[in-house]
């Protein structure tokens, strides 16, 4: 399950994020979205967890948690293909 993590502090690292989520299960990927021009974090990330049950526990546990002074928001990421298909109907 792909998760969207928002409201990250600009200094939060992928390593820190991996550590937070790894407590709840295996990670497929963890990517903080960076600004192409400045190289700085845009304040959100995507985390993929192969097991849906573990991902749901991570959402429940980590949503609203204070990380590096920011209250993060964690939810299931919307599938861009589904969203596009839904918009065209």
Automatic annotation (TrEMBL):
Listed GO MF terms: RNA binding
Residue span, RRM domain: 1-79
InterPro entries: Nucleotide-bd_a/b_plait_sf, RBD_domain_sf, RBM, RRM_dom
SMART domains given in the database record: RRM (SM00360)
Organism the protein comes from: Marinomonas alcarazii
PANTHER family for this protein: TRANSFORMER-2 SEX-DETERMINING PROTEIN-RELATED (PTHR48034)
Full protein name: RNA recognition motif-containing protein
Domain of life: Bacteria
């Amino acid at each position: 399950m792909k998760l969207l993590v928002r409201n990250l502090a600009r200094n939060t690292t992928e390593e820190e994020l991996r550590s937070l989520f790894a407590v709840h299960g295996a990670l497929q990927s963890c990517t903080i979205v960076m600004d192409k021009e400045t190289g700085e974090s845009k304040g959100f990330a995507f985390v993929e967890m192969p097991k849906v049950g573990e991902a749901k526990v991570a959402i429940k546990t980590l949503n609203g948690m204070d990380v590096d002074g920011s209250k993060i928001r964690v939810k299931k990421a919307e599938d861009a293909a589904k969203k596009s298909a839904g918009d065209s109907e």
